[in-house]
């Protein structure tokens, strides 16, 4: 079965002023397309919120990795 997109709304995932990905909502029927067009602002607001959530999670993971790396380095320092 072939799935054809009838509508698509995209939003960038931005981290430190750089696009690192994209999040999309896709419509597969004419009914989806009509609904998406009639509520475009609602869908964009949803995608913006999800994009910000993903960006904040990426920042959290990067910070955690950096803290773990620093902790490893500090654990190898001898106190004299």
Features:
alpha+beta; two-stranded antiparallel ribbon; 80 residues
Textual characterization of the structure:
By secondary structure, this protein is of the alpha+beta class. It has one domain (7-75). The protein is built from 2 helices and 2 strands; from the N terminus they run ββαα. A two-stranded antiparallel sheet has the order 1-2. The longest helix is centred in the C-terminal third of the chain and has 36 residues, at 40-75. The radius of gyration is 20 Å and the shape is elongated. The mean pLDDT is 93. This is GAF domain-containing protein.
Radius of gyration: 20 Å
Instruction: Estimate percent helicity.
Output: 55-70%
Strand portion: 15-25%
Major beta sheet summary: 2 strands, antiparallel
What is the global morphology? elongated
Structural class: alpha+beta
Counted up, domains total 1
Mean pLDDT: 93
Low-confidence stretches: none
Please give the alpha-carbon distance between the first and last residues. Answer: 70 Å
Could you give the order of the helices and strands?
EEHH
Count of DSSP helices?
Answer: 2
The total count of strands amounts to: 2
Strand order of the largest sheet: 1-2
List the helices and strands and how they pair.
Layout: E1 7-15, E2 18-27, H1 30-38, H2 40-75
Antiparallel strand pairs: 1-2
Protein name: GAF domain-containing protein
Summarize the structure.
By secondary structure, the protein is α+β, with helices and mostly antiparallel strands.
């Amino acid at each position: 079965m072939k799935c054809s997109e009838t509508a698509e709304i995209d939003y960038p995932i931005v981290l430190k002023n750089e696009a690192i990905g994209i999040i999309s909502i896709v419509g597969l029927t004419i009914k989806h397309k009509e609904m998406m067009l009639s509520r475009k602002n609602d869908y964009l607001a949803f995608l913006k919120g999800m994009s910000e959530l993903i960006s904040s999670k990426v920042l959290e993971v990067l910070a955690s990795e950096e803290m773990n790396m620093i902790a490893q380095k500090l654990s190898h320092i001898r106190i004299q």
